[in-house]
């Protein structure tokens, strides 16, 4: 089998390329890999916007479509050398309110993609999450590894776990040329304001006190989106077919400390936040052991200091209000309705 791109430009299909991580992957790819031609497939749901591809739209092929539609997926995969699958329903709160889109996108959509990749013998990389492993106790020194058993706790994480298992089965049963990566919590530019870090930043911009679920002691292992995406390319370039790699940057911080740091970086009192009722099934702690990625494939993160990466993220949202402002009011209205239901 010839290496990817050995006969000229590499053609890649990026699903979910107008979403948070996917759009940043497109920007990184075009900035660092001049031999790569990019097609983006995105359904442009509320979480995807062409504004995230500003500056590169004239350099890519964009197709608006749903990965749950096999007729849309098949010809795009057939024309590609590589599929990088970011498209997913990913917001835990939404999965608790209505799991059905998560089943359609994360399970049916993944099935369509891997079937097309198998049919046309196309290399495939599957983006997943550490949430498939469930959670860890706050005082547990262990971290997730590639051998940690799956134990998802929400409709979101269970459908992502199911999609991972589909890929593994297609590798074993049909010889699908695939790799999988499970990453810790991404943060950075172009993330929808429903998510934890951009919601807090944009609230402070608007003079609104940030909201913190419960006591805020839940721990997440944060990684800057650019570091995550550089790791994805490292896996595509150097990873072994059929293998799973965990992506993390040793960024464990609890939610309360994240909020306090955001407030400090934005010139506010670190105590200027409010507690709200915790969400159902809120995982306690995630932590990634990414040693295999570093020792076997030689990857290292650029942002080794969470404060530095968070400052860059704050600066981006402050400077790009035109990007997030159109989605802010609807997001806050949805959160207000959720809290009203919880309080009854």
Strand content: 15-25%
Major sheet size, sense and barrel closure: 7 strands, parallel
Helix and strand sequence = EHEEHEHHEHEEHEEHEEHEHHH
Structural class: alpha/beta
Tally of alpha and pi helices: 11
Per CATH, the architecture is: 3-Layer(aba) Sandwich
Low-confidence stretches: 340-344
CATH fold assignment: Rossmann fold
| CA-based gyration radius | 19 Å
What does this structure look like?
Mean pLDDT is about 90; it is low at about 340-344. This protein has about 350 residues and is of the alpha/beta class. About 45% of the residues lie in helices and about 15% in strands. It has one domain (about 10-275, about 285-330): NAD(P)-binding Rossmann-like Domain (Rossmann fold). It has a seven-stranded parallel β-sheet with strand order 3-2-1-4-5-6-10, with helices on both faces. It has a three-stranded mixed β-sheet with strand order 7-9-11. Strands 8-12 form a two-stranded parallel sheet.
